[in-house]
Amino acid sequence: MILGIDLGTSMVKAALFDPDGECLAVAARRSSPTSYGQGRMEQDFEEIVNAVGEVMAEACSGRPVPRAIGITGQSDGLWLLDRDGRGCGRAVSWLDDRGNPYLQDWIDRGVFEAVFRRNGNAIFPGSHAPLMAAMSAAEPDRLALAHTASYLKDGILQRLTGARVTDTSDASLPFLDVVARDYDPEILRMLGLEHCRHLLAPVMPGPGQAFPLNAEGAALTGLPTGIPVHAGPFDLVACPIGAGVERPGEGLIIIGTTLACEVLVDRVDTSGPAVGMTLCMPQNDRWIRSMPATVGTATLDWILSLVGATHKDVDALLAESSPGSRGVTALPFFSTTGERAPFVDVRARGQLAGLSTATTRADLVRSVCESVAYAARECIEAAGLTGTLSVCGGGSNSITWSRMVADALQRPLSVARKPEVGARGAAMVAMDVVGIDYDRVSWTRPEGVIEPRRERAALHEAGFAHYREIVESARHLWHSPNRDLCHVPREKLPCPAT
């Protein structure tokens, strides 16, 4: 048995696989970020540690002890840990926007682009650099208490094995030289974060190594000590591995909390627009060119809550409206951190247009789903797709939405083998590192193929062109001086009379 752990933004999952890649058991616990208002999103690291122990014990209950454990999960955010791997207060989620002003300053001064020209990674508000800058200014004492500015999967590895390390995928953004695969001191200098260098965990070369489950890890999970545990790569890299993306030019769309549109490449290109990520694969000559838009399932969750519906209503609502959403159009940029792909703008905001008294809640939901499909097309084209394309993620469970994406792209979508594509990829890398032989083709066999409906090509071509037009118009309005004059931040509103 091989155990894969996926530490998602909203769920912690453990999936147990047999030698042929069949998933025998999945255990899950909810562990969502908590909103504290004003765009602040935080998570309790100790809560996640306990959830990991519970799902590992449940997935393995009554079955043979796994030969290896692979961990993947959400990246970015700021997971400050002490010397023993315990949280220094609540972790700052990658969804948090307190890094916005620091990123905007780097953009204005040209630092943002200069960093991209060194490593092919566009910094965004929820990544290490802006959050470190914000913490240095607002909570320097808390930062001083920390021994490691960790990533979530690496913090879990430390609690299970005692190892303080990271892998090249998580470290890629923002501080890594992604060709030499080590920290770039010049990037730290440009960002004014040299004083944080001691907080960065050592980077493991190549696919890294596995570490034995220690006594604390055994007590947490109920598994025996000594099982090799491997952490990495993080989910944006683990998913294409689990989906069978193996040749340069092939791609994957992850319809998750993030809409990640990714292409496997064999060289680092920093000459284009300063946008997206260049993430190290376990192989030294491969990278994932990722356009991780903030417009994924969190956008769908928002519109569903607005119209009083749930995920189980999605397919029915999409069927109630018609292609083109009866004239309703949407921009799906509802995150308080703005957008990070295929452009970077901390002021990006969503909109709904074309509304009338005849508009239904089904039209609203469909317009948002169509806008996400158009965002996926723009992102996957920007990432440089030339080969086959796969799809995975929670949003792909809606066959209607997945077919909408295929229609918008006018490309067939291979549905990645379910369940738990990220955990599958983590398990595969763990087997590679430990030296367990397995059939990669069997492990990544697709569930099927969603063919685009050619009769809808013209409609979606026009819809995509209109989407691009309204994005460009909105980008100008986001930066209008009048926007600032008419917007009063909530914290500056006058107090009500007593």
What is the architecture of the largest domain at the second tier of CATH? 2-Layer Sandwich
Indicate the CATH class of the largest domain. Alpha Beta
Number of helices: 18
**Could you give me the name of the CATH homologous superfamily of the largest domain?**
ATPase, nucleotide binding domain
Total domains: 2
Q: Which segments are poorly predicted (pLDDT under 50) over 5 or more consecutive residues? A: 490-498
Kindly report the spatial arrangement of strands forming the biggest sheet.
16-17-15-14-20-21-22
Strands, count: 22
Note the overall shape. Answer: globular
Assembly type of the chains comes to: single chain
Could you tell me the strand content as a percent range? 15-25%
Gap between N and C termini, in Å? 65 Å
Largest sheet geometry: 7 strands, mixed
Radius of gyration: 22 Å
Mean pLDDT: 94
CATH topology type of the largest domain: Nucleotidyltransferase, domain 5
